[in-house]
Amino acid sequence: MTTAAVSASGPIPRARGGMLRTIYIVWWRDIIRFWRDRARLVASFAQPLLYLVIFGSGLSSALGGGFAAAGGVSYTQFIYPGVISMSVLFSAIFGGMSIVWDREFGFMKELLVAPIERTAVAIGKTLGSATQSLVQAVILLLLAPFVGVTFTVTSFFELLGLMIVLAFGLSAFGVAIASRMKSMQGFQVVMNFLMMPMFFLSGALFPLVGLPLWMTVLTRLDPASYGIDPIRRTVLGAPAERTAITLGDQIVPIGLEALIVFAFGLVMLAFAARAFQHRD
């Protein structure tokens, strides 16, 4: 029977029981590609360091070496959790670029016509992107002693869990956007349009207190805000409570913030999985 006859007779049946294997293969392929792309590795580490050095040193000096809004911690200490989160944000969202790249060079078409669950492709891509961004964020934790930040064993594992949730949520967002894009140029334009506002409204570089009403509303609608705020509160402890996200007059609990980001990731993953169900 020819391929045309098979296609005309109905959808190609998907193999059962191989979903976990498919997820693993897609995930592992993205990890290998990331590791072999040394230019991307260097750039992904250099950008957060530049933000930490330039903004941390420059604005800390301009502010007189202190940062009263954050309970007296230095501005460099204040943005350090934001820099970690920025690394997760940029790497996780741009991880979706591999989908557009694979589509342009035909690999994605071959993958989607294979007898596998297409949902597994979306999950594998999301986990691959999340793993890449998480590795970079963990490496940036090595800078903690240089900015005067210390961790306990408990806070380190709490921080690791929060970074996993943030990496998952933002990776799923990047995959959901990429699953609809047909060209690399279109993906870059859309992601730059979405990513920079997400970053600057997330509270990575300034506290989300005392803002105009319209900006306060935008920061509360930004899912990255609920990922960066608990990371800062875990890293800096009590001083960061003064800049914590509030709804009304109540500080949003860290557990609820993590749940919001995780739920956002699940919704984006569902959108991505649905997009992969449609044939190109």
Question: Can you walk me through this structure?
Answer:
The protein is mainly alpha-helical. It has one domain. 70% of the residues lie in helices and 1% in strands. Strands 1-2 form a two-stranded antiparallel sheet. A hairpin with a 2-residue loop joins β1 and β2.
Following the backbone from N to C, one meets helices and strands in this order, namely: HHHHHHHHHHHEEH
Instruction: Give the low-confidence spans.
Output: 1-17
Q: What is the tally of beta strands? A: 2
**Given the C-alpha coordinates, what overall shape results?**
globular
Strands of the widest sheet, in order across it, are 1-2
Q: What summary fits the major beta sheet?
A: 2 strands, antiparallel
Q: Helix content range of the residues, please? A: over 70%
Query: In angstroms, what is the radius of gyration?
Result: 20 Å
Strand % is under 5%
Secondary structure elements and pairings:
Blueprint: H1 3-9, H2 19-36, H3 38-62, H4 75-94, H5 97-104, H6 107-113, H7 118-140, H8 153-178, H9 184-200, H10 213-221, H11 225-236, E1 246-247, E2 250-251, H12 254-277
Helix pairs in contact: 2-7, 3-4, 4-7, 4-8, 4-11, 7-8, 7-12, 8-11, 8-12, 11-12
